[in-house]
Design brief:
It is built from no helices and 34 strands. The chain is mostly beta strands. The strands form eight sheets. It has a five-stranded antiparallel sheet, with no helix packed on it. The protein is globular and about 50 Å long.
Length: 344
């Protein structure tokens, strides 16, 4: 791995290259983690790019997730999952032979891991606390609700919610189709799935009333709420679409369309309530947006474009409001300094 320190006059904090093609990024506390397709994960200091730790998952990686306090990390893949602990560098691999697509931290002490048709809830050392009953198919995504007291689990045909230590669901939100991505509003008011049938399906959590946003030209595999829970960004089209969930929600409204990429490959909201979004595309471009400005149906252009060198953007992650890390599929990883929460 090579590191180049850039001068303070440039927006670049550090720039490195890794041997394994990146597939996912995660940030937490002062760290950023990058997972490679072959299962190698590097944990890096977000300010300098220095390596803090490493972990390998045999069989390859699909996702990586740092705990909010940066005290631990979980990486998931086709053969199972692995954990890394910052305090002593302890690494633990769990080769379950079950497809593990994703994981989600409730806090620094508890996390949920998709494992085949179940979700496993673990402590930070990897000890199992409880598990859900099998879903109808492989679990595709997970999200915590109610400050970590309820777990939403997406699999074919429904999103099911489990309270702590309850294997059977306490609430079920049906939709016939394959859910690829799950997003729960920080307010807990809305549950959204991005789907193989090129739609977004939305449930209001309190009464299970539902709404489908259809007509996307491609499957919707990336969804992200901002910190307020009022704005949802999605892929599934050449334009990034941003839906307004304030008030009564998006029923009967049109989204804002953010045009820069031919195909959207990454999305990441800037922490805070400024409405700033970063997106990446298959042409290697990273775009920065005032995503909540303008009006519905209005076509927005990026405030700033950070050009790439042709390789597609694999993932984006913010470390606080001031550092944005981008990974490209050719192995390059780059962090940009953003000086203010209110400007790009």
């Amino acid at each position: 791995m090579s590191t180049t320190i850039q001068s303070p006059e440039t927006p670049l904090a550090w720039d490195i290259a890794v041997d394994d093609a990146p597939v996912a990024l995660s940030s937490g506390g002062d760290l950023v983690a990058v997972a490679g397709a072959e299962g190698s994960v590097r944990v890096l200091d977000a300010a300098s790019g220095a390596t803090v730790g490493t972990v390998d998952l045999p069989g390859g990686a699909l996702s990586v997730h740092l705990a909010p306090d940066a005290g631990a990390l979980v990486v998931t893949g086709p053969m199972g999952y692995a954990l890394w602990r910052r305090s002593d560098g302890r690494r633990t691999s769990k080769l379950t032979s079950a497809w593990s697509t994703s994981a989600a931290w409730a806090d620094g002490q508890r996390l949920a891991v998709a494992s085949g048709r179940r979700a496993l809830v673990l402590d930070a050392d990897g000890e199992e606390l409880w598990r859900t009953e099998p879903a109808a198919s492989t679990v595709t995504d997970l999200a915590w609700m109610r400050q970590g007291r309820r777990l939403a689990v997406a699999a074919y045909g429904a999103v099911r919610c489990h309270e702590r230590h309850t294997d059977k669901p306490v609430a079920t939100y049906p939709y016939v189709g394959s859910h690829l991505a799950l997003a729960v509003a920080p307010t807990g008011k809305w549950i959204c799935s991005g789907n193989q049938d090129a739609s977004i399906h939305i449930w209001r959590a309190r009464d299970a009333s539902e709404l489908t946003m259809s007509g996307y030209p491609e499957k919707v595999s990336r969804l992200a709420f901002d910190d307020s829970g009022f704005w949802l960004a999605a892929d599934g089209a050449p334009d990034v679409t941003v839906w307004d969930f304030s008030g009564k929600g998006p029923a009967g409204t049109a989204p804002r369309s953010l045009r820069c990429h031919e195909t959207v490959t990454a999305l990441a909201w800037r922490p805070g309530l400024a409405g700033h979004l970063a997106s990446g595309g298959d042409d290697g471009t990273v775009a920065l947006w005032h995503a909540t400005s303008g009006r519905p149906k209005q076509l927005l252009r990026p405030v700033r474009e950070l050009p790439g060198d042709g390789a597609a953007v694999a993932a984006l992650a913010w470390t606080g409001p001031h550092l944005l890390t981008a990974a490209w599929r050719d192995g390059r990883i780059r962090t940009y300094g953003v000086p203010s929460r209110t400007s790009l």
